[in-house]
Amino acid sequence: MNSLKNELEQFICLANDVVEMKLVKSEEDFFNDKAIFRPEFTHQLFGQTENIFGYKNLRIQLYYSAARLSIYLNHTFTEKIDPTKYDGVQADNVIKAIVDKLEVHPITSKDKFITELAKESSFRPSGTLLNSYSRTHEGSTSHFEIYKNDMSTPGFREYHERLQTFLWWFIDAASYIDPDDERWGYYTFFERQVEGSNTRYSSVGYITVYKYYAYPDKIRQRISQMLILPPYQRQGHGSEVLETVYRDFISDPIVFDITVEDPSDNFVRLRDYIDCKNCKQLPAFQADKLSQGFSHSMENEALDKFKIHKKQARRVYEILRLQATDMSNPKEVKAYRLEIKRRLNIPFQKQRNELEKLKKVLKPEELTAAMQGVDIQERYETLEKWYQEVIEEYRKVTARLSTI
Question: Domain check: are 338 and 205 in the same one?
Fold first, then answer.
């Protein structure tokens, strides 16, 4: 039995290690292993273990042409499990699993995919150009453009169908959105390369936003998904793109405020950084005002100038006050700590208020039962733990703010 188990385990591989992804600009890129990047998540295609069964030395090639995002899909292996030797046990159908999830029809011929690359030079982004900027990375300068789209833009629906397939690999708990819902908006961004008289584009990423009703006659823009493809990550594109989207919202008089749906930790830090950088300009967020606590002026100015809603404005205040606090001054440090803990204590305070109400209506033995689990020391320890976690996150933002 152990021998059979060991034999079968040789046919198990980790999906994250065998899926190879590329943005292919030329035939040389197709064969360049240095261009490979790998997914962050595969459980949405291959289950929670992220394992693939039935192959030895499996390689799954999922390549995208850099501009149009034409998809090439193939797999190779040195051995596939033989069902006749192992009681009919079958190998996972990896190609079907990927095609069914991505809902696309990939190119399976290498030669045909390479031939299709000739069409890349004629690709032009659709939509309205909102911003262009340059970035220097590894000694070379590249140029980038950001566009605003909706599904009525010619050609965008087909492009988006291919672009959104990256979600399954890089966004946890991803899902496709309804392209026929007109409340969705899309911001795409591209690298633009000029070679002589030719201009070529490469896809960098995108943001989706959703319009919600805000009483009485406004809309609330909610950022839903943001994806920057791995070859372009950690190069400053996130802040450039998000600020461009913000400017588009701020200039629209019908937009009441901006919110975010279930953001990742990295997006939270990016948003905090941009909101803090913007609010540092406002009179209500100057150092002398920060020490006096969160105010209606902060809330109103953040909403009026940058369409930041109250909860986020409070977070901005706390980060900027941390930056303005003299950490060598025990009095300032204590005042800041108490300010944060007062907010963190709100759930406990609500619980305490509920217990006060119960005292008036419950019998002593019923009240004792209701108060089980309420431990003051444990509450203090929990508050301190939460405080330290908050400060750790805030310091990541203030460290970046100190560079501007």
Answer: no
